[in-house]
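step 4 of 6: structure.
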Amino acid sequence: MCDLIDKTKLNIFRRPALNFFFRLDDRLLLITIGALVGICSGLSSVALNSGLMLMFHWLSKLSHLWWFFVIPGIGAALSSLTLEKIFKEGAGHGVPEIVYSVSRYGGLMRLRSAVSRLISSCLTIGSGGSAGPEAPAVMSGAAIGSNIARFFSMNDRQRITLVGCGVAGGLASIFNAPIAGIVFTIEIIIGEWSAANIVPIAIASVAGAQISRLLRGNQIAFTHLNFDTDITATLAAIGLAVITAVVSIVLTRTLRRSYAISSRIAVPVWGRAAIGGCLVGIIGIFLPQVMGEGYHAIQRMVEGTFNGGAAIVALLVFAKIIATGLTLGWGGSGGIFAPCLVIGSFSGLMYYHLISLLLPGISLINEGYFALLGMAGLVSGTLQAPLTGLFLIVEITGSYEVILPLILVSTISTTISYAFEPASFYLKDLIERGHFLRPRTDAKVLADLGIREIIEKDCITVHPNMLLGEFINVIQSSHRNYFPVENEQTGEFMGMIHLDGIRSYIFDPLLYETVFLEQIMETDIDTVSIDDDLSDVLDKMDMNNLFSLPVVSSNRFIGMVSKATLLDKYRSELRLQAFY
Amino acid sequence: MDLKLLHIFRNTPFGREMLLGSSYFCKKTGVSPVIYIPEYLKFLMYFENDVVQVDLDKSFLKAPGTAKEHAVDIVRSQGMPDPEFISPKQFTASTLPDIPVNFNFMCCPRSITDMSSKIGLGYIGPKVRRIVQSAKFPVLIASSIYKEWTSITVMFGGSANAVKALRLGLRIGELSGAPVDVFTQEGKKGRQYYEKEIDKAGLSNEMEENVRKWHVFDSGRLSENLYHIPHGSLIVIGAYGHGVIKDIIFGSIMEKVQTIMPNNLLIVGPNYGVEMG
Amino acid sequence: MQLRLDELAKCLKTPADTVERWIRQGRIPVRKKGDQCIYKIAALKKWADENNLSYIVSDTASKDTPKKDDETIYSAMKRGGVFYGIPGNSVEDVFSAAVDRIDCLRTADQRKSLHKRLVAREKLMSTGIGNGIAIPHPRKPLPYDEIPAFITTCFLKNRIDFHAMDNKPVHAMFIIVCPTSTSHLYLLSRLSFCLRNDGFTTLLRDTPDPDTFFAKVREFQKGIDSPGQ
């Protein structure tokens, strides 16, 4: 049939998995397409970056105007409007949405997300808002990966890998740091190190970084400097870790408060963004270093050429925290990565000045060292991603000598912050709502298995008007201990008979002709509905010490769920996850 | 029977017509209606290989206080028991709920935005199309003014999707007791080709026993022949069996039918699984 | 290989919803097109082995044919046969006489074996259940695989004292022989159900002819196998 031939031709293109060559092992397929995704997401990051630089360029011409502080307000309002009205995206932070989709729906994302966040964050950050371009770049990369996977009709597992490729490519491209891209993806997005994933993600990451180098030149974001570390410096790092942990906690809580305050104001979303932006602008008049992403400031701090005493720097730490809160909490669009880096450097610098003041005898190496460590500390503390922070700093500064103190700061900062704010900033919403599902965890298995997969429908139903004697015959031919009672005419579920409950009666022939089932059935029983989550079902079973529950939907008995069957399926599911 | 139909209720007179149409379908086929009264303007439906964002028109959020009451009244007026209501449990973002997709049918208006002018003929909104393309369930597009149907007409074009539509049509005929007609426009292939397809699908016996009449048109244009479909008939038709691109280039029968016919339509997408409905 | 989703689910003995989810998540080497599942048999078998599942293609209706079919009380009794006027003045004699008549036993060894066991069981505890009826049987199944399950109905010429519970002499006995303990229990319970019925015991007292007898047994069987409806 000519129909079939046409379809086959189309399919080989649209469904490369059909191609004989690839069918042998889809790893090769994933690597190829992963590289493609990496390139595309790299391009989108470069586009974002160029957009930002363009906006800086234009707007810096206006910096002398008296009303310049309104510019961030306008930018934020426009960004919010674009997101709401033009793209109809629906508010939401980028990275949690990626994690949500990966854990629940195999990484399906809307195509509009590939572009919407790029434009809106360009507007917010370009106009001076205090946010970072990484989260939008990452979100855009993820959406690109997801939709390329959709185009090639891939299954969930492959799509998740490609989303990871997009994220890695995007991040690697923004920072020109391929390893950080890989580590971030695995640490935050995918949540597990699996051999099948690492290779395509690594390739995508390299592809993204390469694109960035090609188009923007091979620059490490901050110039390489030599730090001679010694014991004193290493010990000092511990102190810094504590400071950064505290600052991380303050940052997280400020953001949350900021968000809470802004949602109570009865102004449309873009109005709030405008107000927040203007406030940032006002702060910016006095402390211009808080506006925008702040990479220039970081550069100067790392190089040790930052002008400012202890007081100014301390002020900057808090000013930047507030500015970030005003931008992100009030409706602006952007990420928190760059602000973490900036606040981290400021914190490091503040610590350096503090130490110099308190212990004037000690000769410390220059402040750039502390700025670096501060950055790592903040990233670890706020995002709970110590490895990402570590590799990122090493890559973007090219300073390998500081690895030891970096590890110290990262781990200590993470540990301390964890005690107060147990969830990463990216993931806390998800965890609060119970939507955080990592592969091969109990939550994930229970979310995957639905009631429909474990329901057993081999119960014999009986009627309330049946005599006990007839019921005995029913028991003889049944395989179960539970018998649902249904109304004869309407089929409505009325109650259950459990053999345990009636053991004392069933051997008494006297009762056979005198007892109706409605006298011995239990009506006050716990039931579950067919749409309930398995975790809720298990909770109910545990609370009431039951091993079986009836599933009742629209007042009709559908079947039984039992812990025994659940264990069986749970185990096979877990084994399956181990292989794939 | 544990079959469910998803209906997104709009608490306006147009919405009432839609729900009457849905409830009538449910009554005839023994399916239970499940109603979603939207609280947010957008929602997401995650299918197997696609995520569709549905942007509702503001009219869908009208008068939320009376929505539930009205919906229950409408369903009761058809003599059906009270419907179930769903409220979404998962949210992709704070204002973006996920609506489950494990239903057996879904009722959509022709367009999810309230362009009453477009609700007239000839237009199926792009979101509805995407839902048809990705969903495992058939989509019921009720006529814009409530109309009862007393027979079923299956459009059979010989493709794999058309076979699915035929199976579904026969099944609905079985459930509702309404007579089933089949309608084929011959085109280039002769009648034997269609008979062979039906034979391959193992439906020849059912065709003999349960189909009232098989209209095969070997001449005349489709648009004119469609007049022979009775006005009180539910049309069951397959869509996108050949892929969207082919449809655009070569034209599709589904397009013509939905442009010309004001009847209730039940569209079967390419992902329809025969164990449903 | 191409199968519909529900058929594949049946082969894997897993609910269709689960198989569909596995295909969507990429955990099973099966590709889905519409409602058709496409896969290579060898790859799927390997996958099934790795994951402790079975893959069995059943073309015929994969219903478990209930073995009970050839073990309903009616068919067992028919197989065993009805014998009248069994001679003998003691338990052992009537056992011998009955065992000699049974068709299902082919060799002398089998008959001797059965006789020995019946006597042994009887010595242990009387199988007279009252009302003149006894149900002798071997305590453990006979060690011959080829003997099917059967119940031989014997009407005795003389009434024999089985030391039954009600001390009444026995005039009818049902010899039950089964290849497994499960089927033995099954037939025994079905038989006792029949024997609880007064009408049946009265009938037995009158030594009915084969047709009436079997008709009554058939009636009982219908009653047992369709409970509660």
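step 5 of 6: annotate
 - Residues 2-50 of chain C form one domain.
 - DSSP finds nine helices and eight strands in chain C.
step 6 of 6: archive
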